[in-house]
Amino acid sequence: MIGRVRFQYCKVIIATSMVWMMLDVFVLMYFTDCTDGPRCSPQEVRVMKHEPEKANPGFLQKIFPKGLLSGGQRNGPGDGGRAVKVPSEREAEAKETFKINQFNLVASDMMALNRTLPDYRMEECRKKRYPPVKSLPKTSIVIVFHNEAWSTLLRTVHSIIDRSPNELLEEILLVDDASEKEHLGSKLTDYVATLPVPVHVIRTGARIGLIRARLKGAYVAKGKVITFLDAHCECTEGWLEPLLSEIHNDRTSVVCPIIDVISDDTFEYITGSDMTWGGFNWKLNFRWYQVPQRELDRRGGDRSMPTRTPTMAGGLFAIDRDYFYEIGSYDEGMDIWGGENLEMSFRVWMCGGKIYIVTCSRVGHVFRKTSPYSWPGGVGRIINHNTQRIVEVWMDEYKDFFYRINPGVRATEYGDVSSRKKLRQKLNCKSFRWYLEQIYPESQLPIDYHSLGEVFSLTKGKQIMADDGLCVSASGSETKFAKCPSSGPEWEFVPKTMALRHVNTDQCLGKGNGVPSLGKCDGSEGQQWTLGGLKES
Ligand code: LR7
Ligand code: MN
């Protein structure tokens, strides 16, 4: 092993010096005509215009061999995954243009489209041997975007081409969801035509949202596997083989890489934890949580083994193309953004598939604090619409629980879900309760929702906290869930009677039907709460 590494290191050094020599000639020959401002910085130019690729296939690979790309040999802005320092005279511009994409566009534009990144994989992963490339399935990569920046979109594309065995890439499909930016028009089409892998731009015409845009891409995909990525990602060394290899072993596995963080401010590449999996809270928001001991044990403590995850984030995953359709692709009734990841997660598990986070595969993603684009009809309407489609089709009796906790959601129309219900029947899927018991027992959703007490905790501030950020507060003889902390200290635990007393009204919390109720303190069993479930925190 050590010998091999040394040998490769030597190769890298030799290759690197040769590459620099070639690059000098290359730059002189082809880029003396560069006149359009910041985009002409030498870093970017090297990959911005490479018409020679057309005449000379394989040219890019020659000038950017894998060793160079992953070894962090170059030292431009952002190379090696490092943070970009925007020069002080451009700070104002960076601040001003941040709103366009909700990330630091100046920093992104300063970096090479093929910036270098270290190999972030854990040692065990680097040692793993995967089936030879010729026996792995080929993949189409589908990237949907609406008004994405040039540099982030093309860096995504370059990172795929540069860090995947190109024999595994059937094609890259860029689905433009009605963007309004000039750089995403013919400039994009012309640019991608010069790349050494087939890259096609598909235009949706009207804004149809990410779910229907992905369906459009999937529809024309020719690869045996479809890999979906967001439009602001960077794939790292060895990201693809472990994903395809899992699908090769079992075509009903839906596989996600570890999603690392690319800073929205500095574009620093920050590795995420391999001890995190996907879950959701009571509002059905996707959330990351610690992988429980149970799952670590199942993998025999081997962190390089894929983690079974209850849900996936949604943006980055690979799936066998035929299986994608067998299992019901996406719910076409879902609008713009949101919910499709939980819908797919429930569906895959309940209908016989599996979802894994493949910890040997790492892809970076620019996480943003807010969304940069418009939401036709309003954010709330879209999210509620999509969420109800999940609840109505997949959640059985937990639907009542959901609506009790989130009564406002009901006001939004959600269209017709009959075809999705039919799909569930046709696929003979298991119940949501089965999913909670077998796949996600750690869920915050009470498995028997008549014993809600199991999932509460009494905080130091004398609040009864339920799900993340939701507290039980009294309104008349009923209780409701409101954002924590509601008004001052509300509840105290009375050890003698094991009651939870509402301080202001001197009433006690009873285990009502679904959501707890308030009544006169009577010491009855219905008002006893055990500290086992009621953690003091
Ligand atoms: O109308 C739209 N049309 C689009 O084409 C709205 C969005 N899009 C594109 C957009 O340009 C982007 O490429 O869709 C992609 C995802 O949109 P983002 O980047 O605004 O979403 P996100 O990263 O905040 O959201 C996560 O959740 C979404 C729920 O619908 C999708 O599943 C995203 O793919 C998903 N991203 C990830 O999983 C990356 C990790 C983030 C986390 C957690
Ligand atoms: Mn994203």
TrEMBL record:
Cellular component terms per the entry's GO annotation: Golgi membrane
GO biological process, one term: protein O-linked glycosylation
Main location: Golgi
Cofactor(s) this protein requires: Mn(2+)
Topology within the bilayer: Single-pass type II membrane protein
GO molecular function ontology, one term from the record: polypeptide N-acetylgalactosaminyltransferase activity
Cell compartments where the protein resides: Golgi apparatus membrane
Record keywords: Disulfide bond, Glycoprotein, Glycosyltransferase, Golgi apparatus, Lectin, Manganese, Membrane, Metal-binding, Signal-anchor, Transferase, Transmembrane, Transmembrane helix
Pfam families referenced in this protein's UniProt entry, alphabetically: Glycos_transf_2 (PF00535)
Pathway in which the depicted protein is active: Protein modification; protein glycosylation
Keyword set includes Glycosyltransferase: yes
PANTHER family associated with the record: N-ACETYLGALACTOSAMINYLTRANSFERASE, POLYPEPTIDE N-ACETYLGALACTOSAMINYLTRANSFERASE 5
Entry's family note: Belongs to the glycosyltransferase 2 family. GalNAc-T subfamily.
Name of this protein: Polypeptide N-acetylgalactosaminyltransferase
Organism field: Elysia marginata
Highest classification ranks of the organism: Eukaryota, Metazoa, Spiralia, Lophotrochozoa, Mollusca
